[in-house]
TrEMBL record:
Organism annotation: Lentilactobacillus parabuchneri
Record flagged with keyword Protein biosynthesis: no
Any one GO molecular function term: inorganic diphosphate phosphatase activity
Name of this chain's protein: Pyrophosphatase PpaX
Pfam families cross-referenced by the UniProt entry: Hydrolase_like
EC annotation from Swiss-Prot or TrEMBL: 3.6.1.1
Keywords: Hydrolase
Root EC class: hydrolase
Keyword hit for Hydrolase: yes
Cross-referenced NCBIfam families: HAD-SF-IIIA, YqeG_hyp_ppase
GO CC annotation terms, alphabetical: cytoplasm
Taxonomy of the source species: Bacteria, Bacillati, Bacillota, Bacilli, Lactobacillales
Top-level taxon in the UniProt lineage: Bacteria
Length: 171
Protein backbone atom coordinates (compact mmCIF):
# COMPACT_ATOMS: atom_id res chain seq x y z
CA UNK A 1 0.00 0.00 0.00
CA UNK A 2 2.69 2.44 1.07
CA UNK A 3 4.80 1.46 -1.94
CA UNK A 4 2.31 3.33 -4.17
CA UNK A 5 3.79 6.54 -2.81
CA UNK A 6 7.43 5.58 -3.13
CA UNK A 7 9.37 7.56 -5.75
CA UNK A 8 12.19 5.82 -7.61
CA UNK A 9 14.50 8.76 -6.94
CA UNK A 10 14.40 12.05 -5.05
CA UNK A 11 16.34 14.96 -6.54
CA UNK A 12 16.26 18.57 -5.27
CA UNK A 13 14.96 20.21 -8.44
CA UNK A 14 14.32 19.32 -12.05
CA UNK A 15 17.18 21.44 -13.36
CA UNK A 16 19.65 19.28 -11.41
CA UNK A 17 18.60 16.17 -13.30
CA UNK A 18 21.23 15.71 -15.99
CA UNK A 19 20.78 13.99 -19.34
CA UNK A 20 23.63 11.71 -18.31
CA UNK A 21 21.72 10.55 -15.22
CA UNK A 22 18.69 9.81 -17.39
CA UNK A 23 20.66 7.99 -20.08
CA UNK A 24 22.49 5.95 -17.43
CA UNK A 25 19.06 4.64 -16.41
CA UNK A 26 17.90 4.01 -19.99
CA UNK A 27 15.54 6.96 -19.96
CA UNK A 28 14.97 8.83 -23.22
CA UNK A 29 11.69 10.51 -22.35
CA UNK A 30 10.71 12.73 -19.46
CA UNK A 31 7.10 13.31 -18.53
CA UNK A 32 7.02 16.30 -16.25
CA UNK A 33 4.50 17.97 -14.04
CA UNK A 34 4.14 21.72 -14.71
CA UNK A 35 3.36 23.68 -11.56
CA UNK A 36 6.17 23.91 -9.02
CA UNK A 37 8.13 21.27 -10.93
CA UNK A 38 8.95 22.90 -14.27
CA UNK A 39 7.84 26.45 -13.40
CA UNK A 40 6.64 28.10 -10.15
CA UNK A 41 2.87 27.58 -9.81
CA UNK A 42 2.21 31.32 -9.63
CA UNK A 43 4.37 32.29 -12.59
CA UNK A 44 3.46 32.59 -16.23
CA UNK A 45 6.97 32.49 -17.54
CA UNK A 46 9.90 30.13 -17.53
CA UNK A 47 13.43 31.01 -16.63
CA UNK A 48 16.96 30.83 -17.91
CA UNK A 49 17.42 27.61 -15.92
CA UNK A 50 14.44 26.04 -17.66
CA UNK A 51 15.65 27.18 -21.06
CA UNK A 52 19.12 25.68 -20.47
CA UNK A 53 17.76 22.43 -19.05
CA UNK A 54 15.50 21.91 -22.05
CA UNK A 55 18.31 22.72 -24.49
CA UNK A 56 20.60 20.25 -22.75
CA UNK A 57 18.03 17.45 -22.93
CA UNK A 58 17.38 18.17 -26.58
CA UNK A 59 21.09 17.91 -27.29
CA UNK A 60 21.10 14.40 -25.82
CA UNK A 61 17.93 13.36 -27.63
CA UNK A 62 15.76 13.25 -24.52
CA UNK A 63 12.13 14.10 -25.14
CA UNK A 64 10.36 16.31 -22.60
CA UNK A 65 6.56 16.24 -22.40
CA UNK A 66 4.44 18.11 -19.86
CA UNK A 67 1.76 16.00 -18.16
CA UNK A 68 -0.27 18.35 -15.97
CA UNK A 69 -3.61 18.44 -14.23
CA UNK A 70 -3.91 22.05 -15.29
CA UNK A 71 -5.93 23.37 -18.22
CA UNK A 72 -4.83 23.58 -21.83
CA UNK A 73 -4.85 27.36 -21.56
CA UNK A 74 -2.61 27.57 -18.50
CA UNK A 75 -0.09 25.06 -19.86
CA UNK A 76 -0.05 26.69 -23.29
CA UNK A 77 0.76 30.01 -21.67
CA UNK A 78 3.57 28.56 -19.57
CA UNK A 79 5.31 26.56 -22.32
CA UNK A 80 4.64 28.60 -25.44
CA UNK A 81 8.22 29.87 -25.63
CA UNK A 82 9.62 26.35 -25.49
CA UNK A 83 7.55 24.44 -28.04
CA UNK A 84 6.92 21.71 -25.49
CA UNK A 85 4.31 19.07 -26.20
CA UNK A 86 1.84 18.57 -23.36
CA UNK A 87 -1.10 16.59 -22.07
CA UNK A 88 -3.57 18.79 -20.11
CA UNK A 89 -6.14 17.66 -17.53
CA UNK A 90 -4.06 14.59 -16.77
CA UNK A 91 -6.13 13.76 -13.68
CA UNK A 92 -3.17 12.55 -11.62
CA UNK A 93 -3.21 10.48 -9.34
CA UNK A 94 -5.24 8.65 -11.98
CA UNK A 95 -3.22 7.24 -14.85
CA UNK A 96 -5.22 8.87 -17.66
CA UNK A 97 -2.70 11.58 -18.61
CA UNK A 98 0.39 9.39 -18.42
CA UNK A 99 -1.29 6.67 -20.46
CA UNK A 100 -2.31 9.22 -23.04
CA UNK A 101 1.26 10.53 -23.30
CA UNK A 102 2.66 6.99 -23.67
CA UNK A 103 0.20 6.27 -26.46
CA UNK A 104 0.27 9.60 -28.25
CA UNK A 105 4.07 9.85 -28.34
CA UNK A 106 4.75 6.11 -28.79
CA UNK A 107 6.79 5.79 -25.60
CA UNK A 108 8.01 2.70 -23.82
CA UNK A 109 7.35 2.63 -20.09
CA UNK A 110 10.79 1.28 -19.36
CA UNK A 111 12.43 4.25 -21.11
CA UNK A 112 10.21 6.89 -19.51
CA UNK A 113 10.27 8.72 -16.19
CA UNK A 114 7.66 10.93 -14.53
CA UNK A 115 9.02 13.96 -12.67
CA UNK A 116 6.86 15.85 -10.19
CA UNK A 117 6.74 17.66 -6.87
CA UNK A 118 3.85 15.75 -5.29
CA UNK A 119 3.78 12.24 -3.84
CA UNK A 120 -0.01 12.20 -3.82
CA UNK A 121 -0.44 12.91 -7.53
CA UNK A 122 2.73 12.62 -9.64
CA UNK A 123 4.34 9.67 -7.88
CA UNK A 124 1.13 7.72 -7.34
CA UNK A 125 0.15 8.14 -11.02
CA UNK A 126 3.59 6.99 -12.18
CA UNK A 127 3.59 3.96 -9.88
CA UNK A 128 0.08 2.99 -10.95
CA UNK A 129 1.30 3.05 -14.56
CA UNK A 130 4.52 1.14 -13.91
CA UNK A 131 6.62 4.16 -14.89
CA UNK A 132 9.63 5.18 -12.78
CA UNK A 133 9.45 8.52 -10.99
CA UNK A 134 11.57 11.34 -9.64
CA UNK A 135 10.22 13.42 -6.78
CA UNK A 136 11.54 17.00 -6.74
CA UNK A 137 11.10 19.72 -4.15
CA UNK A 138 8.50 22.36 -5.09
CA UNK A 139 10.08 25.39 -6.82
CA UNK A 140 8.30 27.83 -4.51
CA UNK A 141 7.26 27.12 -0.95
CA UNK A 142 3.64 28.11 -1.07
CA UNK A 143 1.11 26.24 -3.15
CA UNK A 144 -2.21 26.77 -4.86
CA UNK A 145 -5.09 26.14 -2.43
CA UNK A 146 -5.90 22.68 -3.78
CA UNK A 147 -2.29 21.61 -3.39
CA UNK A 148 -2.26 22.74 0.24
CA UNK A 149 -4.72 19.96 1.05
CA UNK A 150 -2.52 17.40 -0.69
CA UNK A 151 0.49 18.65 1.24
CA UNK A 152 -1.24 17.92 4.54
CA UNK A 153 -1.72 14.26 3.61
CA UNK A 154 1.68 14.17 1.97
CA UNK A 155 3.32 14.95 5.29
CA UNK A 156 1.61 11.98 6.93
CA UNK A 157 2.55 9.66 4.06
CA UNK A 158 6.10 10.95 4.02
CA UNK A 159 6.56 10.18 7.73
CA UNK A 160 5.47 6.58 7.13
CA UNK A 161 7.54 6.25 3.95
CA UNK A 162 10.74 7.44 5.54
CA UNK A 163 10.26 4.96 8.39
CA UNK A 164 9.62 2.03 6.05
CA UNK A 165 12.30 2.96 3.52
CA UNK A 166 15.21 4.43 5.46
CA UNK A 167 17.33 4.40 2.28
CA UNK A 168 14.98 6.94 0.70
CA UNK A 169 16.72 10.30 0.73
CA UNK A 170 17.36 13.42 -1.35
CA UNK A 171 20.18 13.23 -3.85
MG1 LIG B 1 3.09 20.26 -9.14
Amino acid sequence: MLSRFKPTWMIGDIYSISPQFLLDHNINCVLTDLDNTLVPWNSKNGSRALHDWLAENKKFGIKVIVVSNNSHKRIQKAVQDYELPFVPRAMKPLTIGIRQALKQFHLKKRNTVMIGDQLMTDVVAANSCGVRSILVKPLVRDDAWNTTINRYFEKIVWNKLSKKYPDLHWK
